Structures are given as C-alpha cells and as structure tokens.
Amino acid sequence: MNTVRISAPGHTVTIGPGQPLALIAGPCVIESEELTLEIARRLAAICTELGVPLVFKASFDKANRTSIASFRGPGMEQGLAVLAGVRQEVGLPVLSDIHEPGQAEAAAQVLDCLQIPAFLCRQTDLLVAAARTGKPVNIKKGQFVAPWDMGNATAKVREAGGEQILLTERGTFFGYNNLVVDMRSLCALRQHACPVVFDATHSVQLPGGGGTASGGQRQFVAPLARAAAAVGVDALFLEVHPDPDHALCDGPNSLPLDQVAPLLHSLLAIRRAVNATAGTPTQSAP
Fold first, then answer.
1. Within 10 A of 159 (CB to CB), how many other CB atoms are there?
2. 3-state secondary structure of 112
3. Read out DSSP for 116-169?
4. Chain centroid, CA 178 distance in Å
5. Position 281 confidence tier, pLDDT thresholds 50, 70, 90
6. Please, which residues have CB within 8 angstroms of residue 112's CB and are 6 or more apart in sequence?
7. Is 174 in contact with 217 (CB distance < 8 Å)?
8. Distance CA 277, CA 259 (A)
C-alpha cells in the first residue's frame, strides 16, 4: 500500500501504514479569515504538543448545502487567499474540496491536497481534473457507495496519472436523514491500496434532518473515532469549531475545539495498545 505525502514549504505530513496517526481538521467552511487563522493556530499547538501530524481543512465553497439560503462560504478566490494565509502564517499543509473540474487547476496553486466531496465521488471529469494537477487527492466515499466499489473512483484517478490517493469513510445512508458507520468498511477500503481516513464528524450528520439544514449528533463523534482507531485507520478527519452551536455550517456535527486534545489523547492510547499487540511501532503522547 502506498503512503501519501501532503507537503507545504517546510512541513510534510506522510499518511499511510507505519506512519503516525494523522489528523485532517478545521472548520466546515471558511467563515472569516480571522476565525480560520485562530482555529488553525489552536489546532497546530495541540498537534505539536501531542506529536500528531496535521493537515488543515476548510471549504471555500459549500456547493452542496441543503438550502439555497444556507451560507456557502467566501468563494474560491477569497477562500483560497485565506487558505494561503494559513499555509504561510501557520505553516500547515492545507486541504479543501472542489466541486467542478474547472476549479482544479486554480485550487492546486494553493492547496496541498484536493478533496472530492462524497456526493461527487463518481464524477469522472472531476476526479480526472484533480488527478491531473499532480496533487494528492482525498476521495470521500459516497454515502451511497459500497467500500469495495470505490475501486472505480481510484481507477479514474490513477488512469489520469494520480498516484497519491486517500480514501475517506464518512458513513452510509441508513434510511431517511440518517447515516450508519460499518467499521468493516475501514478494512474493505484497504483493498484499494490507499491510506484510509475516518471522518468522525460527517459520520454523525443527519443529512437534511433539520429541514433546511442538516442535523447532527456530535455526542457520537468520540465513540466512533475511538472505534475507528481500534480498527486501525491512517488518519482521522474532524470538522471543529470553537462554538459549534453558532457555526455557519455543520455545527450540529462539529466537534468543539476544546474537545480535540482530549479526544486525540484517547486515540493515541488506543493506537499504542493496538500496535503493542501487533508488535508495530507506537506513537507516543505526553
């Protein structure tokens, strides 16, 4: 299985087998430059203390919001400028999602990894455009896709020259307005020879459950993240916010920023225990 290297100047995060558990985290959407930088700095401090490699994530445009009246973000030009600031001022690699093939080239001028949204994981032109940038690609498994069927998505990226691919599990539709996580999926995704990421916050989302917005059950973020760490994942994906109840997007399923460090402590302990039984190197934490 290949590892994936996500690099900003002076800072490279390597994700894959034999590597430390990595974190991909940030707010759902860029609400303001000030708040984005604040969250990035706080996450960087937490992860530096715990020895957890960090990739910063925030969306410049949420093109798949439930309602046309929902906040979408600042747009690509302004949003990429904010992410460039995170990259330069905080020194973190940055990741964001693209929704159209025409966004790929411009986004790749700033982003260190391009993300394909779950709803768009079968969009051939989007996958090909992302691959052709030469940047790592994080494909979020569609809520409607079986894990073994993600080989079709990875094949599209590889056929277009993309060699560095992450696969992210984010739950599967379970009736109306609900998702369920099958932990077997985290094992099944490995058959595609890509590092596996678990999105603990979108997995507790209640799609469209709020009528004009999605709901969420953030009380289940930590239990699911601990289960995924026990199964064995290469990275954890979290949407975080200092005040989720007033976040402009995905607040109900976002983790409060002050709960990130305690959660990571528990995940590193689980990972050490699992690695100890397997005889593999452990990732220490203070």
1. 12
2. coil
3. E-GGGTT-HHHHHHHHHTTS-EEEEPPTTS-GGGGHHHHHHHHHTT---EEEEE
4. 20
5. low
6. 6, 7, 8, 55, 87, 93, 94, 95, 135, 136
7. no
8. 28
For residues 166 and 228, what is the distance between their CA atoms, to the nearest angstrom? 16
Q: What is the pLDDT of residue 275?
A: 87
Residue 67 makes CB contacts below 8 A (sequence gap 6+) with 212, 213
Q: Count H helices and E strands in the chain, helices first.
A: 8, 15
Residue 165 β-bridge partners: 137
Average pLDDT of the chain, as a whole number: 93
Q: Is the pTM of this model over 0.70?
A: yes
Q: DSSP strand E in 28-136: where? A: 54-57, 94-97, 113-116
* Structural domains of the chain, ranges and CATH numbers in brackets: 4-278 (3.20.20.70)
Distance (Å, rounded) from C-alpha 49 to C-alpha 41?
Answer: 12
Q: How far is residue 264's CA from residue 285's CA, in Å, rounded to a whole number?
A: 9
